[in-house]
Amino acid sequence: MIERFVIPESKLFHKLVLYKLNNVIPIIDYAVENSKQTQAFETNFKRMLETYPNNVFALKLSGLNLDESATNRLIEEARVHDSKILIDAENVNIQHKIEAITNRIISHSKNKHVFKTYQMYRNDSYTTLANDIETYNTNLNVKLVRGAYMHTDRFSGRLYTNKSDTDNAYNDAIALLLQNQHRIGQVIFATHNKQSFELIKHTTNDNFYHASLMGFDDNFHSCNIQRMVYVPFGPPYQTYPYLIRRFLENPIAFV
User: Fold this and answer.
1) How far apart are alpha carbons 241 and 33 in whole angstroms?
2) For residue 225, what are the domain limits?
3) From residue 106, how far is each of 43, 80, 91, 136 by CA, in Å?
């Protein structure tokens, strides 16, 4: 049951092949968070970049303990291996540091393989996205999410208190990105919301993608937009935080 949502590394290659055979782009997600073993995380991630070149990888900077030097080394390693890096947004206690590191990375034209993530349940994300479009233009690659840290960030004052406000913010961001699609780089719309999916599913822009999570991707087969699926993997005892967040986000899927 658990392997529906996160798999051991031994099964990663087979899962990647299956998705690619079905014209789905896998996002390799080393689902280890808040690691204090920065060197071990960097070593494992570097090994994955070397083992699976020409792929898409999600990177949680908490796994590197927000080490900017280590982050830059992995970003360069990904560039060498012709892979893309999606820098995940995380909880509000560290997100400002993640954003600062990400901004410094995407300010360099050599890093056009790097994506910045915007959490639309934050009440400041739309403004940040609009400003970044003006600042970075074609150097800006976007991953748009609602957010997965409600259980820890609920009382931070940074989040919308009503789900409808988050939904509206996400859909407004879709409209903004569609309006500016020729000014920016690539965009990944990461959502399981049917209304949001309806707004982007007929998009034929080669730089636009829809992403869902492994185990949550059954309802997104009929579309024109290119499909991506997150494939989380890692040692079971180190991926529990990921699984707990997913359970809190969508407990019905685990039934």
Assistant:
1) 7
2) 2-254
3) 23, 16, 21, 8
> What does the pLDDT look like over 166-180, one tens digit per residue?
999 999 999 999 999
Q: Quote the number of domains for the chain.
A: 1
Cβ burial of 102 (10 Å; 0-12, 13-18, 19+) is buried
Give the DSSP letter string of 145-187: E--S-HHHHTTSSSB-SSHHHHHHHHHHHHHHHHHTTTTS--E
CATH of the domain at 198: 3.20.20.220
- Bridge partners of 30, per DSSP, are 233
| DSSP conformation letters of 23-58 | T-EEEEEE---S-S-HHHHHHHHHHHHHHS-S-EEE
pLDDT digits (tens, 9 = 90+) for 21-61: 999 999 999 987 666 788 999 999 999 999 999 999 999 99
Q: What does pTM read for this prediction?
A: 0.92
